[in-house]
Amino acid sequence: MDGSELDPQTTLIHAGRGERGPGAASSVPPVFSSTFVLGGEITYGRYGNPIWSALEETIGALEGGRCLVFASGMAAVTAVLETLPMGASVAAPKDAYLGTRGVLGERSETGRLAARLVDITDTDETLAACESGGMLWIESPTNPMVGIADIRALAVGAHAAGALVVVDNTFATPLAQRPLELGADVVVHSLTKYLSGHSDVVLGAVVTRDDGLYDRLLHERSSTGAIAGPMEAFLALRGLRTLGVRFDRQQRNAMELARRLEEHPAVTRVRYPGLPGDPGHSLATEQMNGYGAIVSFELENEGAAESVCEKVRLIAHMTSLGGVETSIERRAVWAGEESIPASLLRMSVGCENVEDLWGDLSSALASSRP
Length: 370
Ligand SMILES: *Cc1c(COP(=O)(O)O)cnc(C)c1O
Description:
Blueprint: H1 8-14, H2 50-63, E1 66-70, H3 73-82, E2 88-93, H4 98-109, E3 113-118, H5 123-128, E4 135-139, H6 151-161, E5 164-168, H7 173-176, E6 186-190, E7 204-208, H8 211-224, H9 230-240, H10 243-263, E8 267-271, H11 281-287, E9 294-299, H12 302-311, E10 316-317, E11 327-330, E12 344-348, H13 354-368
Parallel strand pairs: 2-3, 2-4, 4-5, 5-6, 10-11
Antiparallel strand pairs: 1-7, 6-7, 8-9, 9-12, 11-12
The chain binds pyridoxal-5'-phosphate.
C-alpha cells in the first residue's frame, strides 16, 4: 500500500501489513526461525526476518526513506559511525546522548574517529567544526537541555563543507520532525523510547534515502550481527501502531505541565520549546510539528531536586524516556553529565491524566521547598 498521500497518523497504523487477501492475518506475526528454505528473499536469520521488514517498511514510510532495524539505538549509532573512514571527524553536540558521546570519546582515543563536541544550537560554531569526509551528528531537541538546533541551516552548511549529516530523531519522533525533509542524509532512532513506547523493548533503527549508504549499513548489520530478535521487532511494531495517539497525549500533557511548572514558586527555570518564552520556541515552531514531550526544569538547589525524585508517587523515579508512564530523573547523577545543572530534573511526560500528574508533581514540589 502506498502511504505517500496519507497522514503519518494513518500511515503508522497501516504500513507494512502486506496483502489483504481472504484469510490473511491482520497483524504481522513474529517469525521464529533462524533459517529459511532457499529460493526466497530471506535465507538466514542474521540477514533478514519478515517481521523486521514490516517494521522497517513502517518506519521508512514515516521518515521518508529506507529503514534498517538494529539490536538497539546504540547498535544503530555505532553502525552509522562505522561507515566513516579511519580518523574521520565527527562534529557532535556537547550534550549528545551519553552513550553516543561515550562511543565517540572511545573511538577518538584510539584514533578511529576525531570527535569535536560543539553547542549544536549555535549554527556558526557547529559548522566551523564540520570537515570534508566527516560527519555532523545532530540531536534536536537536545538531551536534557531541550535546546533546538537549526537542522535545515546545519544541513546546508555541513554539505557545503563536505560532511554527511545525521540526525538522532529519538526525542522528536517522525510525527514531530522529519529530518530527511530538512536536508539530513541519515536518521537514527532508539526505538526503545517513543516508537515502541511501553518501556518493554530495546531496539534501534537507521533511515536513509542514499542507496549506497543503505547497502553499506545492511552489510554492516549482516556481518557484525547487531540484529533485532523477532519478538522485540514484533513488540516495537505493535507499539508503533499507537504512536499517534500516545504522542498527541504526551505532548499535550507536557505543554500543560510546562505551563504550570513555569508558574510554580519552587521552580527557577523550565526548558520546553512549546513555551513562548523558550529560546528554541520560534525555531521549533518552524521546523517541528509539535514540541515533543520532554520537559526539563530546575529548582533552587540539588537537595530540592533530589527530594522531588524521592517524593513523587505516581511519577516513576527512573532513567530512560518515551514510555506511556511519566518518569523523572536528575541527570547530573550520571557520570559524564557533570556539566548539567545540578538541580535539573528531566521529565518524560506520559499518557496519564494530566490532573493526576500535576497532583503528584505539585505535592512533591510543595514538600521539597526549603
Ligand atoms: C536511548 C537513546 C539512544 C540509545 O538507544 P538504546 O536503545 O538505549 O541503545 C540514542 N539516542 C538517544 C537520543 C536516546 O535517547
